[in-house]
Design brief:
The structure holds two protein chains of two kinds. Chain A is an alpha/beta fold. Chain A is about 40% helix and about 15% strand.
């Protein structure tokens, strides 16, 4: 019965199949063992990672790969910290050499305090990466026109923000997220802004293919418990979306028949 | 033997480093005690394919970036 309900609901991005609809970030955790335990609890199959200079003064420091195996999880290298198309391409070429990954997360952010996606720079970087053979999952504004343009350029997934990165405010503009989903032929993921499990549920109920969460898990008081909550939240939202919710009506509608009452 | 001419001055991850001998990329990565399987190397803004680390010789003035994966969102 349960298999009938949950079975065969994989999603596909760039020809790769995943059963988990939760992608988790690996940043902001207090240490690598907690990172590993939370990712395990989340059930995620894909994790985002950043590319940075090695610390030459401490070359034997434990590395992410020692705790989060790139053979078990699909690494999704990101371009966090890149502010130009050139930086993004350089960074992801290095990531590709480090692990051979073509599937990447492009994010080109504007300055604090919004860290809002810089869409002109994002579009330029996406074009450069696609020309270089990358399969680009792109973090973007919740702008249906920009999202469509990114899809038409060849991006393999569109990832609008739900709210500013790390804000924990949940999906602030569900109408635009729904419009992006309705117009897209590639997967749409809410990336950024999830604060707790029901934000992930809500995003999935809108019809997102998956949700990307980092801060909400990593900075929770108990990251492992929150990771498990996010897993449940994403599953609940997905099931509810597939089930088809009842329409909202501005009136009561009794659950018990009003006929056949005793007199 | 004029050892002074053999000094190899490199910029690695923004730090100036001097080595007393000629090096390939592979020898540099080893000298820095890094795990070759877990890093990627850029030499003068060009990617160095891992399969060529043993053949690519370094020259004074070369600028290298050596990166790895860390936690990120």
């Amino acid at each position: 019965m349960d298999a009938q309900i949950t079975g065969n609901d994989d999603w596909t991005v760039a020809g790769r199949h995943f059963s988990s609809r939760l992608i988790v970030g690996t940043g902001k955790y207090k240490d690598l063992p907690t990172t590993a335990a939370a990712i395990e609890a989340s059930g995620a199959e894909m994790v985002t990672v950043a590319v940075r200079r090695v610390n030459l003064s401490d070359p034997k420091a434990p590395m992410l790969q020692d705790y989060v195996s790139p053979t078990r999880y699909t690494y999704l290298p990101n371009t966090a910290g890149c502010f130009t198309a050139d930086d993004a391409v350089r960074t992801l070429r290095l990531a590709r050499e480090a692990g051979g990954w073509n599937l990447v997360k492009l994010e080109v952010l504007g300055p604090p305090p919004t860290l809002y996606p810089d869409m002109p720079a994002t579009l330029e970087a996406a074009a450069a990466l696609i020309a270089d053979g990358f399969e680009v999952m792109v973090y973007c504004s919740d702008d249906p026109i920009a999202a469509k343009r990114l899809e038409e350029m060849g991006c393999v997934a569109i990832m609008p923000l739900g709210a500013p990165i790390g804000s924990g405010l949940g999906v602030q503009n569900p109408l635009m997220i729904q419009m992006i989903i309705a117009n897209a032929k590639v997967p749409v993921l809410v990336d950024a802004g999830v604060g707790t499990a029901y934000d992930a549920t809500f995003a999935m109920e809108l019809g997102c293919d998956a949700v990307l969460v980092n801060s909400a898990i990593a900075l929770a008081s108990d990251p492992v418990l929150m990771a498990r909550a996010m897993k449940a939240g994403v599953e609940a939202g997905r099931l509810a979306f597939r089930a088809g919710r009842i329409p909202r009506i501005n009136a009561a509608n009794p659950s018990s028949p009003l006929t056949g009452l005793i007199r | 033997m004029d050892t002074a001419t053999e000094i190899l001055n490199l910029t690695v991850n923004g730090e100036r480093r001097a080595f007393p001998t000629r090096l390939t990329v592979a020898a540099l990565v080893t000298a820095l005690e890094l795990d070759m399987r877990k890093v990627a190397v850029e030499l003068n803004r060009e990617i160095v394919p891992r399969s060529t680390y043993g053949q690519v010789a370094l020259h004074s003035g070369d600028i290298l970036e050596i990166v790895h994966f860390i936690g990120g969102g």
